[in-house]
Amino acid sequence: MRRGWDTRDAGDNDRQAFAAVLSLGPIAAIEGQTVDRVPVAYSDTGAAIGAFAGFMWSMTQLGALASPALAFGAGAGTPPGVGADFKLSGKAAATWTLRFDTKAKLYQNGVPAPMWTVRGALAYDPTKDSTYPGGNGPHRMADPADTAAYDAAMATWEWTENPYLLGLRWAHGYWQRDVSNPNSTYQRVMGMGSPWRLIDVAAFVEGRNIAAANGWTCGGMIYSRDEKWATMKKILQAGMGEPMPLGARISCLVNAPKVSLATVTIQDVIGQARVATTQPRRNRINTVTPRYRLEENNWQFLPGSPISIAEHIAEDGGKRSKVLDYPFIQNTKQIGTAVRYDIENSREFGPITLPLKLFWMGYKPGDCVTADLPEVGLNRQPILLLNRDLDPAGGVTTFTARSETNAKHAFALGQAATPPPTPGVTGPPLVPVPAVDAWAISATSLISQAQTVPALVVTGSVDASTGDAVVIEYRPFVSGQAPNVGWTSAGIWSVGASRVEITSVRSGAPYEVSVSYQRNGVTGGRRILGPVVTSGVAVDYGAVVGPNRPENGATVGAPAGTTIGGVRQPDGSYVGGKLAAQILTDILTNAGNTADLGANIGAYKLLIDGLARAPDGRSLVEMVDQIGIKTEQNDLFIKNLQRLDPATGTALAMWSVGANGVVSAISQLAGPAGSVVGIYSDVFVLWDRNGGGQPIEVFRYAGGKLRMYDVEVDTLKAKSIDTPALADYAIRRSYTAELASNVALPGSDGGRVRYLTLGVTKQRADSSIRLECNMAPRPGRDYAGYFVFGRTTDGVDTVMDTKWYWVASCVINGFRSVRSPFYYGRAFAGLPVGAHSFWIDFVAYGGGNDQGFMEAGSNFYVEEIKV
To answer: Among residues of the chain, what percentage have pLDDT more than 70?
Structure first.
């Protein structure tokens, strides 16, 4: 407002008054005023102090929602037509009155240029809210529909320059009401006005913390006519970020070092992946001229000095310049950070389009993942997810992304002086094959404690500077065998390795060895050495030492010159490790047993070495054959036992091998009651005569359980099969419900209807529940509301998600209803095991909705999955 009038002072129109709206209120403070760039101070009554005393007055208000009439200052007078109803409630404002200087000392050039500096809007800070996870303080947020709660919440907010808190306020909107009228309701007067549940508050809190740590601030002017999304971009630009849609929610991204959350491999891709290998030349800039405001420049929007990156200019072969606006940054250092981020981000390659399996829907724009897809030039390349498109029918989650270079953050923040190279796609690392003479099999045995054991000794040195590891493998030699099959790893060694010993080989068998190099996890081609035949096991008897070592040709226990073998030995002599006297006693005993048996059966055929008796006196025919080796350290034997019980007609045969108390045996028992074959062993293996002599482990017995490996069955019939692996990794139980008839939509604000309910019994604690629905609302014209997805467990309702829904009247051209299909799909983890009732509600929003209905056939699908 501008108005001139006469006062009782001399002159016509000697007063001229202005009323200026400075900001939407309430605000924190009006810090001061300049007139023609010269600061002017005022008394508490609004009179100018200093050169303008008696000729200038000003009064201000902070924009409380119930403000008194705005005065013009003591001595300034009051313009005609201005009275007690001259209120600017909800607006920060100032009046400014000038008195005509008849001596022309003050206003030679006419009305001077005024400017007020304002400390502006108040904002909610979740980190200062004790009811927000991780927050601490009195700040609160409420729904503007709850007038009393929102009144109380606004009273807790504070002034801030943090870009993300201002962005959060802009997304929520600026709401005002006439607080002098208890029946008034809040109306949105600026901002986006998004419901709080449709704002990704956690993303803004992350940005808030990063901006606070780096000292990034935001200031400037926003007009109500400005486009809302563009304004949000300008606000978050001051915090090195940008807004992004996350389904129906408003989220944001902040430039900061990011940790990769997962790795995308070729097994995850289920469609055609596309990668733009570089940005267009016109977008890949290396010089920026920023335009911004500084207080020392009287807040004028002026260009600053160009900022160039010399390394990129050299790489590009010249300058590629661009003028960029930073309207809400008022700090030169912060401008430098923003410019460097814009230059580095302009050089990230993309877009990268990846159609992935459905479980990737759990990742969202703003997340960083690693793409390990050499097929499209992405070799463990960090990428930043920018957009997500879900196709539940096809089971595809499609992400759009760009490359992400971690080193750019240190450069943009001034922590490093050199920028990272411009990123791009890469081919797999080139890993050479070892040279012919670089490695050799230098020995086929090792000597250990005077014993020669078979081994493969590989010696050599790395002859490729690009290798960072050596891979050694071996296999039994089979003529004509393909070069890439049958290999067993002997380990991955450092480039400094020069000798590798492989002892897990059989004696007297042909073997081959392969040597290959690795770089960045990629293994190159094999250099195959051999075949060579391993040495046999041998003991150097001359190297055996110790007090118990017999002399060469010694006969233990016999006098010198005694002949051994076939001749009766005197007491004290040994034959085959047994006292000769005991052998004679055994012979006499067995002869008596043989006589008894002959008397019992009349005649016999000599098939055995011994005849024994059972505890009850029955005669048992028994043959025992044992071969053994005993040294100072080891005791080994092979035993063959055969036993026949003539009285019962039962026969037993057993063959066993033992070493130091560990026995492996096979037994066969046959008789009138049936036959039994038994195996006494920990592991049962078969030898494939066509597989190079490699053992195939059939089963293993341990801990009271028999475990079988790699079994193929043509037909398997069983009453019950327990498959833990399938239960863990292939759970898929589904439940469906469908509307049998139309269901009315609520019409009044807050009206709520439950459409579908579906009972589900969750089987496993570590599985997820996926909800899908295909709804076909046919609402009336100009209809708004939201879906509520929830569950009832043990009688308690829990809201799991909400989705906004509206139909604008302009879309349907005046018709009374429109069919507007709605799809929803999301997976939820961490739900408890047991019975749940999942449901869908619809809540009308805004009032004045034209009532409609949900069409029959709308369906609800719930699936328990663990993949």
So the answer is: 84
Q: Is the omega angle on the peptide bond into residue 26 within 30 degrees of 0, that is, cis?
A: yes
DSSP string covering 736-760: EEE-SS-EEPP-STT-EEEEEEEEE
Helix, strand, coil distribution of the chain in percent, nearest 5: 15, 40, 45
pLDDT of 729 > 60? The answer is: no
CA angle 199, 204, 208 (to 5 degrees): 155
CA–CA distances in Å: residue 531 to residues 474, 489, 501, 534: 10, 17, 16, 10
Evaluate whether 470 touches 448 at the Cβ level (below 8 Å).
no
Taking CA atoms, 426 is separated from 269, 379, 423, 602, in Å, by 19, 7, 9, 93
Q: Which residues of 431-464 are buried (b: 16+ CB within 10 A; e: fewer)?
A: bbebeeeebbbebbbbeeeeebbbbbbbebebeb
Cis preceding linkage at 392, omega within 30: no
Q: Is the pLDDT of residue 793 over 90?
A: yes
- Tens of pLDDT, residue by residue over 62-91, are 999 999 999 999 988 889 888 888 899 999
Return the HEC string of 139-205: CCCCCCCCHHHHHHHHCCCEECCCHHHHHHHHHHCEEECCCCCCCCCCEEEECCCCCHHHECHHHHH
Residue 791 CB burial class (10 angstroms; 0-12, 13-18, ≥19): buried
Structure token pair of residue 586? 């055994």
Question: Could you read off the pLDDT of 272-310 as tens digits, one per residue?
Answer: 999 998 888 888 999 999 999 999 999 999 999 999 999
Share of the chain above pLDDT 90, in %: 49
- Whether the pLDDT of residue 604 is over 60: the answer is no
Q: Are 518 and 493 in contact (CB under 8 A)?
A: no
Q: Which helix (H) or strand (E) holds 620?
A: strand 619-630
Distance CA 363, CA 118 (A): 41
User: 660 and 651 in contact (C-beta within 8 Å)?
Assistant: no
Residue ranges with strand state E in 37-104:
38-42, 48-49, 56-61, 91-99
Question: Smallest Cα–Cα separation from 158: which of 27, 65, 62?
Answer: 27
Coil, helix or strand at residue 41: strand
Residue 83 and residue 331: Cα distance in Å, rounded? 43
Q: What span, in angstroms and rounded, lies between the C-alpha atoms of 651 and 180?
A: 110
Is residue 351 reached through a cis peptide bond, with omega within 30 degrees of 0 on the bond before it?
yes
Flag whether pLDDT at 565 surpasses 70.
no
CB atoms within 10 A of CB 649: 11
Output the six-digit token pair for 439: 């490695």
Using the CB atoms, write b or e for 502-514: b if 16+ within 10 Å.
beebebebbbbbb
The token duo for 665 is 């045996």
Q: What local confidence, expressed as pLDDT, does residue 36 receive? A: 92
pLDDT score at 609? 44
d(CA 486, CA 470): 19
Model confidence band, residue 408 (pLDDT cutoffs 50, 70, 90)? very high
- Does residue 830 carry a pLDDT above 90? no
Residue 592 is predicted with a pLDDT of: 57
In whole angstroms, give the CA distance from residue 193 to residue 178.
Answer: 18
Higher pLDDT, 515 or 390: 515
767-785: per-residue pLDDT in tens? 889 899 988 888 876 778 8
Q: How far apart are CA 751 and CA 380, in angstroms?
A: 52
SS3 track for 347-400: CCCCCEEEEEEHHHHHCCCCCEEEEEEHHHCEEEEEEEEEEEEEECCCCEEEEE
CA 165, CA 209: separation in Å to the nearest integer?
10
Q: Which two three-digit tokens encode residue 496?
A: 């400094």
Could you give the CA distance from residue 293 to residue 512 in angstroms, rounded to a whole number? 74
Which whole-number Å values give the CA distances from 44 to 73, 74, 668, in the listed order?
A: 9, 9, 115
Spatial distance between the Cα atoms of 79 and 81, rounded to a whole number of angstroms: 6
Mean pLDDT calculated for residue range 653-682:
83
